[in-house]
Structures are given as C-alpha cells and as structure tokens.
Amino acid sequence: AQSVAQPEDQVNVAEGNPLTVKCTYSVSGNPYLFWYVQYPNRGLQFLLKYITGDNLVKGSYGFEAEFNKSQTSFHLKKPSALVSDSALYFCAAHYGGFKTIFGAGTRLFVKA
Amino acid sequence: DAGVIQSPRHEVTEMGQEVTLRCKPISGHDYLFWYRQTMMRGLELLIYFNNNVPIDDSGMPEDRFSAKMPNASFSTLKIQPSEPRDSAVYFCASSKDRGNEQFFGPGTRLTVL
C-alpha cells in the first residue's frame, strides 16, 4: 500500500535553532513530493515541492527540503526557527493519475 | 483571486439530516479535490475531479456521500443521511495540474449531533 510517514507527532525547537521535520514515503513510481503547513482553523498552505532535478528545494518563508531517493525521504528544514513557524506540517505525495496521500502531520512548537 | 471559497464555514445538524457543502475553485484550475480531516484519520482524499468529471471516488466512505461538479466554478459534497461519525472538517482544494500545488479552502467544520 502507498504511504507517507511522518515519524514524529511533535517537534520542539528553540527560536533561532535549526529545525527538521521528517518525512519518508513508500509510493510507487516517481511521486511528486510536497510540504504544506496548516495554521489553526485554516486550510493547508503550500510550502514547497520536489518534482525532479536538484535534491535541495527551497520554498516559502525560508523553508527548504532535501530529497533522498535511496532513503525515500523528503525532510523539511529551516536554518533558524521563528516562533511564528509553530504550526502543523504535512508531507504529501502525488502519484498515479492525481492520487494524493498525506502524512499524519507533525506539530511544530518553536519556543521563544 | 479570492482563492478557494467554501460554504458554510460551520454546519451543525442532527443525525439523519441532509448536509450539502459547497466549493468554488480558483478560476482556471482544472482539478478539484474534496478532503476530510479528523483527529483519528488525519487528512483523507475523498474524491477528485478533472475538468468537471469525477476521476477517482475511491475515498468516498460510503453511499451516503456524493459529490458533483456541474460546472468549472462550483462543486458540492452531499451527505444523506448524516451520522455523528461524519463530524469532521471538510476541505475543498483546486490545482492547475499534477505538477502544481493544491490550493485549499478554509474548510467547513461539520458537527452531526
């Protein structure tokens, strides 16, 4: 079965420190990979995507993600966390026609 | 563009009643998606449309759920009859194509008593 795993329910980091939110996938073919962020009582917002090319992709608000095909991972990173980055983060894979599967989400807490 | 518009934002109804959720996608987007989000099951894709045609409804939980897209600017998700386990936040999203991100609406929080 196709799946996207976010192994951490929650990540805690101090403001100014680097952050990593992990994502691994088990999806057939060459999926397109995405990261989205959800703030309370809001819909998901796109951060960045990987389709092909450079394994390091840069996105909105200073976020970046590293694609690793051998480890089937697509970890989200940011060099210096802000309190305002506190939110729920989702990794997603598009495969097949337009099937989309989301990870369970990781809640990020950034402490001032 | 106003983004993806959903209505109502909140819906409280009683078990057995019919519920209709509405969505207006972003103009020019050929794909429309309906999702359900719950604490227990996370974010689930229910159905998606391409050019107003339903392509994959394998995520629709049961026959009580139905979705239509009569034109490029409007879609509905209907639950009839509703049950308490249908309580969730329902999101509509649209996209230009497979390689592009999905734009989500603000969601409809449904509570079935």
How are the SSEs ordered, and which strands pair?
The complex is a heterodimer of chains A (112) and B (113).
Chain A: E1 3-5, E2 10-14, E3 19-21, E4 24-26, E5 32-38, E6 44-50, E7 56-58, E8 64-68, E9 73-78, E10 87-95, E11 99-102, E12 106-111
Chain B: E1 5-7, E2 10-13, E3 19-24, E4 31-38, E5 42-50, E6 53-56, E7 65-71, E8 74-79, E9 88-95, E10 103-104, E11 108-112
End-to-end distance of chain A, in Å? 40 Å
Overall 3D form of chain A: globular
Structural class of chain B: mainly beta
Please indicate the percent range of residues of chain A in DSSP E strands (runs of 2 or more): over 45%
**Residue windows where pLDDT falls under 50 for at least 5 positions of chain B:** none
| Biggest β-sheet description of chain B | 7 strands, mixed
**How much is the average pLDDT of chain A?**
94
Q: Greatest chain-chain interface?
A: A-B, 22 and 21 residues
Radius of gyration of chain B equals 13 Å
How do the SSEs of chain A run, as a string of H and E? EEEEEEEEEEEE
Q: Any descriptors?
A:
heterodimer; A: 112 residues; mainly beta; 6-stranded mixed sheet; 4-stranded antiparallel sheet; 54% strand; globular; B: 113 residues; 7-stranded mixed sheet
In short:
Chain A is mainly beta. Chain A has strands spanning 3-5, 10-14, 19-21, 24-26, 32-38, 44-50, 56-58, 64-68, 73-78, 87-95, 99-102, 106-111. The relative contact order of chain A is 0.33.
